[in-house]
What does this fold into?
Amino acid sequence: MRHGSGQWAGVLSERLFDENVTLLGRPDDWQTNDEIDIRQAISQTNLFLSQHRREDFQRWNETLPGGPTRPAAVTIVDSSGLGLKAAIDGAGITFAGIEIAACDIAAERLGPIMPHQVPANAGYYLCYPPALERDRRIRNVRTWMLAEAAKTCRPAERETR
It folds into this structure.
């Protein structure tokens, strides 16, 4: 499985699901629905931002209804996973994909801080070499992964590249 545009040399790729990004934090820390209170709290909070999410965050912030918000500090981390861990641990908030955080959201370790989401400029793809396209093991894992992705995500147009 790879994250990106779906175009990589030497492999076939099938989109499993798209990604939508937003601010996430611990639900216990974000119990208000008042936008002014939320913006005030964000202005006093550390945002853990993946180095790969800078452009997505800028686009999210520019399209935020009511105008951009400014966290107290922005800590750039190596991956969205590190940002998710920091937010779960209560060190601040993070900006990440709803789909990748789905288990943490379902377990109420994380939740969206605001309803605003934007599509990321990438998705998640099953990738394999063309020589294995007819291999039974690849077909089986492909069938299973596509079925699992369809259960939990919005339907995505399937494409093979």
Q: What stands out?
A: The radius of gyration is 17 Å. Strands lie at 2-4, 12-25, 46-50, 73-77, 93-97, 111-112, 118-128. The CA atoms of residues 11 and 129 lie 5 Å apart. Helices lie at 35-42, 54-62, 80-88, 102-106, 136-152.
